[in-house]
Amino acid sequence: EAQVTQNPRYLITVTGKKLTVTCSQNMNHEYMSWYRQDPGLGLRQIYYSMNVEVTDKGDVPEGYKVSRKEKRNFPLILESPSPNQTSLYFCASSVRAGRGYEQYFGPGTRLTVT
Amino acid sequence: RKEVEQDPGPFNVPEGATVAFNCTYSNSASQSFFWYRQDCRKEPKLLMSVYSSGNEDGRFTAQLNRASQYISLLIRDSKLSDSATYLCVVNKEGSYIPTFGRGTSLIVHP
After folding, report:
1. What digits encode the pLDDT tens for the residues B8-62?
2. DSSP reduced 3-state for B82
3. Which of A61, A59, A93 lies closest to A74, judged by CA?
4. Following DSSP, what letter does each residue of A30-91 receive, concatenated?
C-alpha cells in the first residue's frame, strides 16, 4: 500500500529537549516536504526536498532542521524546541502533475512543547 | 490581500443539496491549482486537480477562472460524508512552495 508514515503521532516534550520526527514514504517520490498547521493560519511549509541531499527552506524554517540522506526518509529535527513550535505537523511526499505537484500527506504528528 | 483566500464558512447544507466554494488567488503567475479535503484532525487528501478546461469527478466539478483569478469547487447531491474542510492550493510555475488557503468548512446535515 502506497503511504507516508510519521512517528511519533503524538509527542509532549519540554523546552530545549531535542527531538526528531521521522517521515518515510514508499512511493519512490523525489519530492518531500514538512508542514505545520495552526488554527487560523492554515498549512505552512517548513522545509522541502527535491531529491537526496537537496533541501531548501519553505515559508517558516526557523527553529527546524531537516536531512535527506535517503530517498524514502525525510526527518524533521527540532534542536531546541520552544512552546511556539507546539503544532500539528504533516510530512508530504509529492509527484509532479502537470505544472504543479500532487501531495500525499502522512497522518500527522501532534507536538506539544511545555 | 492574502495570496490565497477562502471563505471559512461553515457552509451548512442539507443532504442532496448542491454547494459551491470559491478560492481567490492574488498572484497572476500561479499555474497549478488543486483542491484537497481535510477531515477533522486528519491529514489533507488530494481531491482533484484543477485544469484550465475544468474537470469533473463524479459529483465534484472544479473550474478555473484565470481572468478573475479564482478556482471553484462544486459538489452536487451532497452526502453526510462530504462534511469536511476543503483546502485550495496554488503553485506558481516552477515553484515547489505551494500556498494553501485556510480552508472552507462544509457541514452536510440530514
Report:
1. 999 999 999 999 999 999 987 877 899 999 999 899 999 999 988 889 999 999 9
2. helix
3. A93
4. SEEEEEEEETTTEEEEEEEEEETTEEEE-S--TT-EE--SSSSB--EEESS--GGG-EEEEE
CB distance from A61 to chain B under 8 Å? Answer: no
pLDDT at A43: 92
Which of helix, strand or coil describes residue B80? helix
Are A90 and A34 in contact by the 8 Å Cβ rule? The answer is yes
How far away is chain A from the Cα of B17, in angstroms, using its nearest Cα? 27
pLDDT for B30: 78
Q: Does A39 touch chain B (CB under 8 A)?
A: no
List the single best residue of B4, B23, B43 to mutate versus A (max A Cβ within 10 A): B43
A11 forms beta bridges with A111
How much is the pLDDT for B1?
61
* Range in A33-47, A70-84, A95-109 with the lowest mean pLDDT: A95-109
C-alpha cell at position B61: 466539478
Q: Is B81 helix (H, G, I), strand (E, B) or coil?
A: helix
Distance (Å) from the alpha carbon of A3 to chain B's nearest alpha carbon: 12
Q: Give the count of beta carbons closer than 10 Å to the beta carbon of residue A34.
A: 27
* Contact status, residue B2 vs residue A71, Cβ threshold 8 Å: no
Q: What is the DSSP letter of A28?
A: -
Q: How far is B67 from chain A (nearest CA, A)?
A: 19
